[in-house]
Predict the structure.
Amino acid sequence: MSAVLQSTTPTAEPVANYRLSLRRFTRNKLAVAGLVVVVVFLLFCFVGPLLYSTDQTHTDLHQVNLGPSGAHWLGTDAVGHDEVGRLMFGGQVSLLVGLAAGVLATVIGTLWGATAGYVGGWADAVMMRVVDAGIAIPALFILLVVSAITTPDTLGLILVLGLVSWLVPSRLVRAETLTLKSRDYVLTLRATGGTHGRAIARHILPNSVSTIVVAATFQVADAILLVAYVSYLGLGVQPPKTDWGGMLSAGLTAAYSGRWWLIVPPGLAIILVVCAFNAIGDGLRDAFDVRGRG
Amino acid sequence: METLLYLLRRALQALVVILIVTVVVFCLLHALPGGPARGILGPQATAQQIAAFNHEQGLDRSLPVQYVYYLRTLLHGDLGTSYTLNEGVSQLIGQRLPKTLVLTVLSALVGLLLAIPLGMWQAVRRNKPADYVITTLSFVAYSTPVYFLGLILVLVFTQTLHWFPSQAPQGDTLAQVFADPVALVLPVVTGAASMVAVFSRYMRAATLENLSEDYVRTARAGGSRQGAILFRHVFRNSLTPVIAMLGYYVPVLFGGALVVEQLFNYPGMGLLFWSAAQSSDYPVLLGCVLVISVATVVGTLLADVVQRVVDPRVKAGRT
Amino acid sequence: MSGAEKDAEAEAAAEVGTAAETAAERVLEVEGLGVTFGTDTGDVPAVCDIALHVQPGETLALVGESGSGKSTVALAALGLLPGNARVSGRITVGGTQVVGTGEAELARLRGRTASMVFQEPATALDPLTRVGAQIAEVIRNHRPLSRAEAAREAVELLRRVGIPEPERRASAFPFQLSGGQRQRVVIAMAIANSPDLLIADEPTTALDVTVQAEILDLLRGLAADYGTGVLLVTHNMGVVADFADRVAVMLRGEIVETGPVEQVLLRPSHEYTQRLLAAVPRLALSGEDAPEREGASVVELRDVSVRFGRGPSAVQALDGVTLDVRPGETVGLVGESGSGKSTAARVALGLIPPDAGTVSLFGTDLGRTRGRRRRALLSGVGVVFQDPVASLDARMSVAECVAEPLRMHRRGMSSADRRARVAEVLELVRLPKELAARGPRELSGGQRQRVSLARSLVLEPRLLVADEPTSALDVSVQRTVLEVIAELQRELGFACLFVSHDLAVVQEFAQRVVVMRAGRVEEQGPTMSTLLRPRSDYTRRLIAAVPVPDPVVQRRRRAQERTEATA
């Protein structure tokens, strides 16, 4: 009988819990708007080029610096690329690098923070001082030093960005681990001969998932923003490839001569997407009722 | 006594953090093309000069030994010599750091003075239109790359309205900087924007949390009005965690200064760093990283100490 | 005339009496009160059609179990309910209508006409404001005094509520005071403007039993001196017997019985009240010791010391503690908060390594056993902790929670066997097997504790360590859980180390008792002789402080205590 129950009825509780979280999330208008914005931009950047095809590899010197018109909705840039197409093309890099770097930072941060929190004692103290040191060196400075040494490719860029931004998630996950490891069910497990591995795999990690997901969302927002700084700092992907930050820094001087269409669209794209991820993170945090950054 | 012990322990922690930073910088130094020898002798040095220098400085020894050497030169206040400016890095930084501090401290003050009342107001008007509008605005402010925001501000307030100059004060001394306060407006506002965004969120969260605390109910049960409760009790209790976050925000402020100084041509450490990056002036780059990191660690330490002064519980080692 | 008839007559007389009084004489009058909370999952009705009143100088106790809505009534009386509450009906405090009145007018009422004492002294005071200033604030809310005058009066109030060195303590921050002292400060705030009505919401629940007795004495004395009417909200029948003139019993948002305290506590008419009173553990005043158990100790702590922290702020949590549990017996570990009883249990479980002394479990030195052997040793132990919410991983189903020890220590077991075993223990703890697939969040507190118990028994342990297993539960639920434990112990024969602050519970369920105080064993021995004829002064005071749920007996004990104190 109990076997039947077990196999046919899924554990009702997490479902009910997630349903409650989902309801809380969907009631947060900003968060839902954020989700819509992210989906729209993903479609725009990755499906858009199929519907609106432009040449983003060859320069077209007959078509440089055109204003918005029927043929080029947002005009063209200094080497003749159509701006709408460029926005899609650059968005692919911004979103891909941002997502990958954000996830990478969260993974590193989770492993580091969970280890420090669970092991505790001296290891924790030393590992957290390393995090303090990492936080003490501003990421932009490190990126600028790296840019003075080398210009990485896309994969390298993801690695560099991931390596400079895992510190905040590591602190969050450590705090969560510290709380969870003193929960009564973990103490019970330890007091009745359970292994550390079991405590981590069965209780601590699964219960940290919401914290980690929330941290990852904020991390992606930060990473996309950081990607936008990267070209400005001279670390960006090389032409003819580009990203929104690259478009923005390339258009900086043009803006002074009134060619707003070169900077406003990529600027807005960055702001919208980063806002969207922040709003989603905010909504998820409230929905899961976890602590995270304000 | 207990405060003294706490300060001692906290200072020791800060020292460890600074040591770790020096290790990171030391590693970067060795990752440089040509290594530290080129870092000190400059890009024109020949291979023989480098070999001789390496031997003389013990750079052909093991890395741990070299690290000890490196620490020793640091302790003498020697950060090397700039390739391009032909001046000691310590001197260069010494001239520029005060100006950067002026910029960051002003930005932080303006940011906090705006963020704290905004956050409290949002908490009181929770889920009302005003809260949504400010929340949206702070998301936008947080999500705008500083250089883009600065550009927009310049386009609007300099190019179009002609209210403020597009350059920050250029003087060498602090007196000269303060002599031209109008020129400081745009750089400070640009630097403060994301701070307002972040700290209004912190303050909103902290205020909301405190509003649901039992002591608020006790005060209400004693006949205190909402306003009195807010300003006499909730404000101070919400401020303490926000102050604690301030320490962690110091590196972000310096990062902002890096961009703001370049944007408004303000001759502080950020601009020095920037031009050093353009000319691969490694000693300046790493010297700046080291100084900024130490400043951050000290800033965090100060934030902790301030929190201890404000919150009697922390003073007693309890929370 | 039979007892029931007499009661009926008394009630009729009371009715006539109340009818004769004008409503204005009552300091609190509640009629047809209904409260509904709007939540994420829809509207939740909390209380419905409540009618009660408090006259000057009398104490009405509002009793009930958790979720009965008694605190909601108390908060509604001062208009302090959270924003999602919808209130209907009439509440009159000192002639002022509360329901529907604006905050500004309520603020004039609160702290002057009526004031409130809350349950949690740890959080009821602003941590960053000196206690004197917090009292002065209440004074100046209602009276045009200067800062200095209010501060002087605050010191007087602190003296009045029995805080030693009030001049000095007025400038203390709340964290510098003990829980009992903090509650005295909250009381000082409540009486600062001599209110007509004092609402006390579980005022002693968070306090140790000796402190509880002091606070109740204080409240009783103040109410008598000022002629204040008191609405006392509590779940503790002993407190009711000690304090109340009349009692209203609440069940699921409604009042089911009202009457004078002797009548309700000694001759309850409603079936629920009868059940509630039957479930309350009572200190027995006579009894025989259980025969001493034979056999080698299951667990033994010898000269165990534990220090938490380092430097000057270190705390000596245990100081030379020696105790043991023999096969099949229950040893009650009692003491007030901070006595080290939970730490001792955790040392026995190997969760806290002792700084000095040894722990031997099933005859093996736990401190010297590592790895696989240690895990095998610990598989003979079952654990039940206090908090029903934190004891179970909310992400697992009940069946998974109970099966976890099997997965840990019976690796070879087939999943069919495992399911069968889980079903078997769930039946042992009297849980319907339909619950197996549910999540802990869908269960009540008592059900969760029984799941914890099932998990602890699934490997047939030789020792059960239960750390306050029923402290978070209502009395009726507490009784069923305790009975299940006792019954299974008789059946399965495990030994039990039972940590509790409740002397009545320990007296009923333990054969031996260990009294702890400030990290040391104050005394230990067979339960009955230790608790009925305590050798140590501390144990005697501890027992005297426990209020018994019988107003007549409690009055006698109090009088006796007073004469002994003066003698």
